[in-house]
Amino acid sequence: MRTVNQRGWFFVLPVLILVAFNALMPIMTVVNYSVQETFGNNVFFWQGLDWFEQILRSDRFQAALGRQFLFTAIILAIEVPLGIVIALSMPRKGIWVPVCLVLMALPMLIPWNVVGQMWNIFTLPKVGMLGYFMNDVLGVNYDMTQDPLAAWITVVVMDVWHWTSLVVLLAYAGLVSIPDAYYHAAKIDGASSWSVFRYIQLPKMKTVLTIAILLRFIDSFNIYTEPFTLTGGGPGNSTTLLSIDLVKIALGQFDLGPAAAMSLIYFAITLMVSWLFYTLMTKDDAG
Amino acid sequence: MGGPPVSPAQAGYQASPAGSAGMIELHDISKRVGKVVHIKPTSLTLQPGHFNVLLGATGSGKTSLIKLMAGLDPLASGRIVMDGQDITKLSTQKRNISLVHQFFVNYPHMTVFENIASPLRVAGMAPSEIQGRVEEAADVLQLRPMLQRRPHELSGGQQQRTALARAIAKESRAVFLDEPLANLDYKLREELREQLPDLFAGRGAVVVYATSEPEEALLLGGWTALMEDGHVTQFGPTSEIYRKPDNLTAARVFSDPPINAAEVTKSGSEAALDGGARWTLSGDAAGLADGRYTVAVRPHRVTPQRHSEADVALKGRVLVTELSGSDSSAHFQMGDNFWVSLASGVHPYQVGEDHTFYMNPVHCRYFAADGKLVA
Amino acid sequence: MARITLSKLRHSYYPDPKGPDDYALKEIDVTWRNGGAYALLGPSGCGKSTLLNIISGLLTPSEGRVLFDDNDVTDLPPDRRNIAQVFQFPVIYDTMTVRQNLAFPLKNRGVDEARIAERVAEIAEMLEVVPMLDTKAANLSPDNKQKISMGRGLVRDDVNVVMFDEPLTVIDPHLKWKLRSKLKELHQRVRATMIYVTHDQTEALTFADEVVVMQEGEVVQIGTPVELFERPQHTFVGHFIGSPGMNILPCEAAGDRARFQGHEIALEGPVTGSGGTTVLGIRPEYVGIGDTGIPAQVTKVSDVGRHYVIDAQVGDMTLKAVSEEAVPEKGASVHLAFRPEQTRVYRDGWIATEARR
Q: Out of A179, A181, A203, whose CB is closest to C95?
């Protein structure tokens, strides 16, 4: 019995080694940097938790964290309901199903940096289609390199365009798994469309929605490439999210200690909020 | 589950000629998941040559026991010996067994022929021999015209026959059938049920058949192990167990409709139902010590008409009646006991009215307070 | 509650059906009285589910009308037909308690709170689910879930018909039996028109006052359980109903006699019609084993508990007999006696003897 199963560990070994190389070792390096100061030449001075304290107290970090939470909250508030609505309006049978699915998957297939570049050009005044349309057709003053609000709206719209599909596809998977009998029963019970949604569709989508929200939270909270290629964090610091700020500190200023400490704080926050989400959303499953 | 079938992909596969396969012995095997005991220590000897039926309700441990024997779950204790060889530590792939599930499990992308042939190909058998074996199995299960079709083009019954044909063609030493007919139409189930014992007769494999239907166990004959709450309560030749369940639980498990039971007081040579009928005891029952017992009698032994002088009259209020063309049944209340009478023919009952039923005390079984059969 | 009339109903899943083979449901014409218990019985693919969906309004028939009392409901959607349906797999609202589940159909129709509470209490008592009223429905066992979905149908007092679509599929055998009698009891109490769809003869026969036996989209016989058992109009009914089914044996027939494997056999009455293929139909229950009659060889004896099923060979045909008494061994030579009033001839499947009065 057990002896038979021991052999299975050999198959897991390559993965363990891989994980060790690409996750554990970098993390240990980061931990190492976060408690030391270095001026290069591999000379290190013990710094204790000073970097952590400094980061947590800095206005810059707090502002970036605030922007980060705001961004994530906005895109979750838009993408989740929007994704559900789109999933609900998609056909459940017939020849249009594959067409809809492919259309939905398209934005997700485009690489992150390309998305940023696309939207950058798209929104340029005079040159980009959107920029031209807004400024010259509608006459609205729209320039995200100048106007923080315009920059924010663009970043959010871009993310919604890129990632709502993920929520749609997951919600759709949940919806198609509901047997027809439920809809028939609801019709017979005289349930309204709202009741059908509230008591049949939403409960049955719950598991996949939990996964969708978690994925979107983690992804949006760690987002870097798209806003960076789009706005570079500007104008000013208005769209400098946590990750962008982190890269500025680490690579721009080469403050490896504070950057390492910030990464760990960042990681801890992501982990904690994910855990919180998960526990809250699955808590009444047992009841 | 929609996954691929339990693949008989085995390196050490060797077909054993029919008739030479031996028995399966279970020595105190048990299964635990965490602290929960799924199978209590169980010892059984399963013989080839007849069906070994595992009969019990859903959750009584039939499937768990099969999985242990198939090597799909680890044992918490005990040993499994097949054909004289200890296979406890052998992986599923090397046990030379077949498993047919309640759900129709076939490879969707393969034709029926390829489905039946798959374990033989894995074993590296010569194509000509494969052809012969598959055709033989297909003939037995009347699948000849469908050999080139794919599973989705078949009816449920044909799909399940394909799964059975695969088990037959493989000529395994042990075939585990886990409620294979549960998802089929009633009439189809009846037909296959009748054919199954013949299909496996003379193949020398140990056949284990799990079911939750008492009727199925009776029709398949052979030996039956009654299962309840993760252990085997009784094991023996099917009709013997049916006629003489050695405990009250076994009697309840092996009865459909449920066996009628009631408390009786025995004093002297007489037994009396609480506030009801009394009768004179004979045979073993007469020798029991005075006291309280549980009496049990099968529904078809409680009839609406008197058949013999010895019959005892039972008065009850009829609650529900069922008429199935050939049989009539009445559910009636007698004091605190809810009993059922099942009789051939058509009998008019008035729901809500009192009716007198009859039973011959020779058909009564008596159980002590601990549930053991005493007479 | 209502009387249900199905008038010249036909249905095809093709937009433009050519021949009879394109019809999933060939013509059906039947009236079911108010408060009756009916069953649609047949193997998978016989059209019973199509018929059920037409009655519930999930499907509009290609031809014909559906009437509830005198109202034509053929084109009405399910929610406007005032029907209730219990499905193969229990449909319950997972997030609601049992009480909320039972109240749901009434709430949707704006019934006032006091009336809802009263009806729910009444139905819960009837279904014996009072102790679980405040537990979440998702946590119930399959049989209790099925009871709740039944309850949601019964809670409304304006229901025209309650339909059951193989409701015992996921129920354990020993509970099946209990739920079945519960259903029967409910029918005897509330007297609603009920239609029960199944492939299981026991369920159909024990539940219904009248059973519609279907095969390949066609109604083969409509009758009471006793009629279907005693005098099947078609060999399919004889085979499908009864366990084991009727013996169907090739024969030649003339007058009130049939010849089977060289033996003369008395029939229930004179043979009607001519031509076609004739077979003899007799139920195993009516084949007696004794010292006189047709000589036969016992090939198999099965102990079914209640009785024995004996396979006996006559010439090159095997037939079954049922006996409650001690029986001969396998291989024994016996004599079979067919009870004449239960022995009939079928021509091309349909009954071809007249019963003597």
A: A203
Domain boundaries, chain C: 4-230, 247-351
Residues of chain C predicted below pLDDT 70: 1, 357
The chains in contact with chain C, meaning 3 or more Cβ pairs closer than 8 Å, are A, B
Looking at residue B4, its pLDDT comes to 36
pLDDT band at A40 (very low <50, low <70, confident <90, very high): low
- Preferred mutation among C54, C83, C94, C111 to probe A, highest tally of A CBs within 10 A: C94
B90 with A3: Cβ contact below 8 A:
no
Task: Select the residue of A181, A190, A204 nearest C79 (Cβ to Cβ).
Answer: A190
Same domain for B218 and B329? no
B186: tokens are 């009633």
CA–CA separation, B321 and B274 (whole Å): 25
Residue A277 — very low, low, confident or very high, per pLDDT cuts 50/70/90? Answer: confident
Question: Is the minimum CB–CB distance between A7 and chain B shorter than 8 Å?
Answer: no
ipTM of the complex: 0.82
Which among B29, B80, B89, B95 is the top mutation candidate for probing chain A, defined by the most A β-carbons within 10 Å of its own β-carbon? B89
User: Domain C4-230 is classified in which CATH homologous superfamily?
Assistant: P-loop containing nucleotide triphosphate hydrolases (3.40.50.300)
DSSP string spanning C264-323? EEE-SS-B-S-SS-EEEEE-GGGEEEESSSEEEEEEEEEE-SSSEEEEEEETTEEEEEEE
Span B47-69, average pLDDT = 91
For residue B90, the chain A residues in CB contact (below 8 A) are: 4
Judge whether B322 is closer than 8 Å to chain C, CB to CB: yes
pLDDT reported for residue A285: 54
| C-beta atoms of C206 and B219 within 8 A | no
Q: What is the pLDDT of residues A89-118, one digit of tens each?
A: 998 888 888 898 999 888 888 888 888 888
Whether B5 maps to a domain, the answer reads no
pTM score, whole prediction: 0.81
Confidence tier at B14 by pLDDT (50, 70, 90): very low
Q: Which residue has the tokens 């109604």?
A: C219
Coil, strand, or helix at residue B275?
coil
Nearest by CB to residue C242, choosing from B155, B156, B326, is: B326
What's the domain range around A216?
A: 58-285
**pLDDT recorded at residue B7:** 31
Q: What pLDDT shows up at residue A19?
A: 85
Rounded to whole angstroms, how far apart are CA atoms A148 and A154?
10
The CATH code that applies to domain C247-351 is 2.40.50.140
If one compares B15 and A175, the residue with the highest pLDDT of the two is A175
CB atoms within 10 A of CB C82: 19
Residue among A185, A187, A199 whose CB faces C96 most closely: A199
Q: What pLDDT, on a 0 to 100 scale, did the predictor assign at position C196?
A: 94
Question: b vs e for A153-171, b when ≥16 Cβ sit within 10 Å of the residue's Cβ?
Answer: ebbbebbbebbbbbbbbbb
User: C303, C308, C323: which to substitute to probe chain B, counting the most B Cβ within 10 Å?
Assistant: C303
| Contact between C108 and A189 using a beta-carbon 8 Å cutoff | yes
Rounded distance, CA C66 to CA C70, Å? 10
